[in-house]
Design a protein that fits this description.
- It contains ten helices and no strands.
- By secondary structure, it is mainly alpha-helical.
- It has one domain: MetI-like (MetI-like fold), CATH 1.10.3720.
Amino acid sequence: MELWEITWLTLKVSASAVMVSILLGLPAGTGLALGRFRGRRFLMALANAGMGLPPVVVGLTVAIMLWRTGPLGGLALLYTPAAMVIAQVVIALPIVTGLTAAAVQSLDQRIRLESLALGASTGQLVFTLWREAKLGLLAAAMAGFGGAISEVGAVLMVGGNIKGQTRVLTTAIVMETRMGHFNAAIALSALLLALVFFVNLVLTYLQQGRRP
């Protein structure tokens, strides 16, 4: 029963973080790819640098923000699944944003020009570009999910690995290893790998579609 709870919480937290990252990262990455404004290159560099954010730094920053004396301490989110989602969003969002920008930028410029020539609105243009860049966008989603679900440092710092509340597969693996229960740690690792493979298998089928 506890294993099911840990697995379900792992999937729920990571899926929530990736969904938020996609909702924020798709428009942000598209704006960086298409926009022409002062500071654009700096923001692109910031997004690309964010792909390599050290998880422990993310965990420390989020923990300080959510601590009872911090700016968001009144929300009482520290050591809750919500805090874990926030930490994973900070990790996954730059990945989704940067890869989205790269996918949209790699499209043939004629697609954009032809759409505008046919009278497409801004929304229609964006959806056309997303449709053409769907392979790259799904790759961004897969990379974001991988970065989120495999995270342990930040999640441990803001979640606390509380049994029945914030314990997920990665933190459970660390706990079992520290206790010397290597068989249990290996079994949990295998389950985590299987979960990651299954999710990415589904996304890969969506990505490739009927491509030969």
